[in-house]
Amino acid sequence: MIEINAPLLAHAYCPPIALINGFSMALLVWQDDLNTGIEVIDHQHRRIVEMINHLHVAQTSLQRLAVAEVIDELIDYTLSHFAFEEELMEQAGYPFSLAHKRVHLVFGKRVGEYRLRFQAGEDVTDELRNMLSRWLFNHIRGDDQAYAPQVIAHLNQFSRSHQHGTWLGRTLQRIFR
C-alpha cells in the first residue's frame, strides 16, 4: 500500500514522501514546466516518470525479479519513446536532431550498463533511479523543449494542409493543441 505524506521538497523534482511497506521514499511528481506542448510526447514523458516511481516501489518489495521487470520495461519504453521523438524531429527538419539523437544514444548505452550491472548481481536501483530522474528532467527542460516549437509548427502546418474534417486532421488537432 502506498500512502503519500505531506509534500516535502527534498529536491525540486521529488517532492512527496511516500511510505511503502515501511520504507520512506521520495516519489517523482510531474511538474507543469516539463510540458513540451506536444501532448503525445508529454504523455510518454509522464509514463517514464511513473515507471521510475515503479522502480522504487519494486525495490521495496525486495524481489529482484520485480525490479528486473521494471528495469527492462523502463528501458524498452524509453528507447521506443526516443525513436518516436527522433522521427518527429526529423520530419520537422529540426536542425539539431542528429545531436539530440546522439544524446539519446549515449543515454541508452548508459542505462544498458546499469542493466548489465544489475544482472551481474549488483544493487544499482537507487543509483539508476537517481540518474534517471535527474537526466530525464534536465533533458526535457533543455533538449526536448528546444525542439518543441519547431515540431509543433510542423505538425500544425501538416494539420492545416490536410482537411480538418478527416480523422487524421481532427486527431492531430487534439494531440498538438
TrEMBL record:
The keyword Translocase does not apply. InterPro entries: Bacteriohemerythrin-like (IPR023504), Haemerythrin_Fe_BS (IPR016131), Hemerythrin (IPR050669), Hemerythrin-like (IPR012312), Hemerythrin-like_sf (IPR035938), Hemerythrin_metal-bd (IPR012827). Residues 36-150 form the Hemerythrin-like domain. It comes from the Bacteria. Fe cation 2 binds at E85, H100, H104, H139, D144. Fe cation 1 binds at H45, H81, E85, D144. Transmembrane segments: none annotated. One of its GO terms (molecular function) is oxygen carrier activity. Keywords: Iron, Metal-binding, Oxygen transport, Transport. SUPFAM superfamilies: Hemerythrin-like. Oxygen-binding protein. May be involved in a storage mechanism or for delivery to oxygen-requiring enzymes. The oxygen-binding site contains two iron atoms. Belongs to the hemerythrin family. Monomer. This is Bacteriohemerythrin. It comes from Xanthomonas vesicatoria ATCC 35937.
